Amino acid sequence: MVSGLELAHWRQKSREVAVAHSISPQEVDWLLQAWAGLTPLSLRLETYKKRSEIPLKGAWDELRQLWEKRLQQRIPVQYLVGETPWRDLQLKVSPAVLIPRPETEMIVEIALDRAQDSFKAGHWVDLGTGSGAIALSLAQALPEGTIHAVDQSSEALSIAQENARHLGLTNNLEFHLGSWFSPLNSVQGKITVMVSNPPYIPTATLSQLQPEVAQHEPKIALDGGNDGLDAIRHLITTAPQFLQNDGLWVIEMGADQGELVKELLTQNSNYENIEIIKDLAGLPRFAVACVRK
């Protein structure tokens, strides 16, 4: 237990220290939401300050130690508390999975908006599912569809399955251990929509990423090879064998890769209606195409 006033004093000091360390002060609030069960509204209005006792998830000292780890070791706060919000979901995360980014949320809406109505009861695949963020959002939005979540990491797949159980989204979700399309032979030629946030960072630039990413997030989910396009090339080449005619192909990519990805899709005779879509920051972030056989 801790008093509201004591927690407010620690919050204020910690937010100041966060700014000095070039860390968003919002992360202090994320930590308090997870550790003290405070809502974003109570933190914004500071109504919690009036409470004489606030129960904590663990010891008060442990909370302060977690924040020191964030500052000194640059461990992402999401890994420290073991969870992160994404869209309207609360997801378990660990260093075995990439932390779902806010900008990736758009990929779900893009896939749903551009899919034909008849596709919504079909087979959808999320390749490289990680925490299951995309697959779980699709399962929530498509109760009549079958969502296939694929990852080559058994640790990541275990976390995705745990998230599905916790959220009650197991009825229309199937999990597959393997690389890209390799475990999906049973639905070859029947997939209506493929969605993926593949690794797309060039190998040489990995060391230049923020320490939170370079030192703590799984490199297998980041490293896209020499030019960052290894996985994307593979998905362009192999998807026509697995998607049905008119099937939808949707990926996230690096903000500087749009023209290259568009060229790769154009050079492959199996795609049409190729579109590069900007994210909320105005950066070209997503590629969409239809398979033509």
From TrEMBL:
It is an enzyme of class 2 (transferase). GO terms for biological process: methylation. Residues 121-267 form the Methyltransferase domain. Keywords: Methyltransferase, S-adenosyl-L-methionine, Transferase. Pfam families: Methyltransf_31. It comes from the Bacteria. Its EC number is 2.1.1.297. Substrate binds at N197, P198, P199, Y200. Belongs to the protein N5-glutamine methyltransferase family. PrmC subfamily. HAMAP family: RF_methyltr_PrmC. Methylates the class 1 translation termination release factors RF1/PrfA and RF2/PrfB on the glutamine residue of the universally conserved GGQ motif. This is Release factor glutamine methyltransferase. It comes from Euhalothece natronophila Z-M001. The gene is prmC.
